[in-house]
Design brief:
It is a single chain. By secondary structure, this protein is α+β, with helices and mostly antiparallel strands. The chain has helices at residues 4-55, 183-235, 250-299, 306-330, 342-351, 376-393, 436-441, 449-459; strands at 73-76, 82-85, 89-93, 137-138, 144-152, 155-167, 173-181, 338-341, 360-363, 371-374, 398-405, 408-415, 463-468, 474-481. It has 3 domains: 1-107 and 130-237, no CATH class; 250-330, Helix Hairpins (Orthogonal Bundle), CATH 1.10.287.130; 338-481, Heat Shock Protein 90. The protein contains 8 helices and 14 strands. Strands 1, 2, 3, 4, 5, 6 and 7 form a 7-stranded antiparallel sheet that branches. Strands 9-11-12-14-13 form a 5-stranded mixed sheet. A two-stranded antiparallel sheet has the order 8-10. A hairpin with a 2-residue loop joins strand 5 (144-152) and strand 6. Helix 3 runs antiparallel to helix 4. The longest helix is centred in the middle third of the chain and has 53 residues, at 183-235. The protein is rod-shaped and about 155 Å long.
């Protein structure tokens, strides 16, 4: 199933079906157990009534049994022989013996017998030994229960039998098996089972339908998002946005996140387009100048400006290197994790700047740990770009200093130039951005140095900021986390 609605409806239906089947089976088992216990209680009452009569030595043929209440009774002696049964009992099972014909046996109420002339052994008491109370007893323990069948007056049915033991005054132990019909239990269980078999499919259809409708309504915004995303993909118009539902559920959050992703993607594409356009513009100038000089040199060798051609080539090479580094940073290239001493790196970079118009003053404490982790080449490029920017705008002084601060190392580069206006302090870190006063001073800069410096700092887990210097110029602060 490829549809979420179908899978949700099927899953909900299966879960409800399992729950209902389990609950239905539990109800049936409890109902059957309760009704069976009630039948057993009725059978026990009937058995104890007959057992009480036996304990009073009532003769077998005078036992009062509850035939009219459909309670078949079978009485057996210690040897398992049947000595008495209820009226119209034709067959029985589940009581230990299926005999329904009483065997010849002395009456329960008789004593040792009568003499030859028909007189009782008792002194003139002419009751024939019937109905004289004795001193027997009925077993007061829990009876034994069993299920079986009995045929009474041609009708066969299932019964719950209770077996109660009784002892006569003569010491004879008899077992009374009395049954109670299970018809009520079977009818009730059958009725409940039939209702469940009819109601369960209907209920499952209702659950499946409701789940389908609810899921369809819940996923309707998702379908709207999908259609809009397909339209955006087909039109390549990143200015479009997916519809955001008014709810505050997961789908609304998905729509908002999708729109945020589209916004970021649009900004990234716009930045890439501007980057390509600006790079093309910046590359056009040195390439055109170099071509012009080479064409002039080819036609008039004596007019070839070799130093100018070399300068244009160097500028073109530097610009290509900057563009390549930015491309690698945009591609997510992770810097190396080499541990290096930032103080030594600053000294090394300053020592190589022999052609600067303004000497660089370095202030690095002799004691202190200035180790950071990262790419030596990229961090050297950052320091070099900051020093180039300071040299470009300084009047008389350029200074670089190091200090430890909040679990990291801070490199500050200051100059005494005109500084950066507060409104332009974030804009100067954008690519190909040069302030108006910088264009007159910097005829060779492409506006990539500070953008590269900030990107590299961010890739190393640091940050690059600018504010005003005490001398009145600009102060750039590079913070990098310590290697520890």
């Amino acid at each position: 199933m490829r549809s979420v609605r179908a899978r949700a409806a099927l899953g909900a239906t299966v879960v409800v079906a399992v729950a209902l089947v389990g609950a239905g089976l539990a109800v049936l088992l409890v109902l059957r157990a309760n009704l069976t216990d009630q039948a057993g209680l009725q059978a026990e009452v009937a058995a104890r009534e007959v057992a009480g009569q036996l304990a009073l030595d009532v003769p077998y043929d005078r036992l009062e049994m509850r035939e009219e209440e459909d309670h078949p009774v079978q009485v057996t002696d210690e040897d398992g022989r049947v000595v008495a049964v209820s009226k119209d009992l034709e067959a029985i099972s589940g009581t230990g013996t299926d005999q329904v014909e009483p065997a010849s046996s002395p009456a329960a109420g008789s004593s040792s017998g009568s003499d030859d002339d028909g007189r009782d052994d008792d002194d003139g008491d002419d009751n024939g030994g019937h109905g004289i109370p004795g001193r027997g007893e009925v077993d007061s323990g829990d009876p034994d229960f069993s299920n079986g069948t009995a045929t009474v007056d041609g009708d066969t049915a299932d019964y719950r039998f209770a077996s109660v033991r009784a002892t006569t005054s003569a010491g004879v132990t008899l077992t009374v098996h009395a049954g109670a019909p299970l018809a009520a239990e079977q009818e009730a269980v059958g009725t409940v089972r039939g209702a469940m078999l009819i109601g369960l499919p209907v209920l499952l259809l209702v659950v499946a339908g409701v789940t389908w409708l609810v899921t369809r309504r819940a996923l309707r915004p998702v379908e709207g998002i999908r259609r809009e995303m397909a339209a955006i993909t087909a039109s390549e118009d990143l200015r479009r946005r997916v519809p955001e539902p008014g709810s505050r559920d997961e789908i609304a959050r998905l729509a908002r996140t999708t729109n945020e992703t589209l916004t970021a993607l649009e900004a990234s594409v716009d930045r890439q387009r501007r980057f390509v356009a600006d790079a093309s513009h910046e590359l056009r100038s040195p390439i055109a100048s170099l071509r012009t000089q080479l064409e002039v040199g080819a036609a008039h060798p004596e007019l070839l400006d070799v130093p100018g051609a070399v300068a244009d080539t160097v500028r073109l090479q530097a610009l290509a290197a900057d563009l390549l580094l930015l491309a690698r940073l945009d591609a997510g290239e992770r810097p190396g994790r080499t541990t290096l001493d930032l103080g030594a790196l600053v000294h090394e970079e300053v020592s190589q700047r022999t052609g600067d118009r303004i000497p660089v003053a370095v202030s690095v404490p002799d004691s202190g740990a200035f180790e950071v982790a990262g790419s030596r080449g990229q961090l050297a490029r950052v320091i070099g770009n900051l020093l180039d920017n300071a040299e470009r705008h300084a009047e008389r002084t350029v200074a670089v200093s190091l200090r430890a601060e909040r679990g990291g190392v801070v490199v500050e580069v200051t100059d005494d130039g005109a500084g950066v206006p507060p409104g332009e302090r974030e804009r100067i870190f954008e690519r190909f951005v040069r302030l108006d006063d910088a264009r007159t001073r910097d005829e060779g800069g492409a506006g990539l140095g500070l953008a590269i410096a900030r990107d590299v700092a961010a890739r190393h887990g640091g940050r690059l900021t600018v504010d005003g210097a005490p001398e009145g110029g600009a102060r750039f602060g590079l913070w990098l986390p310590s290697a520890g």
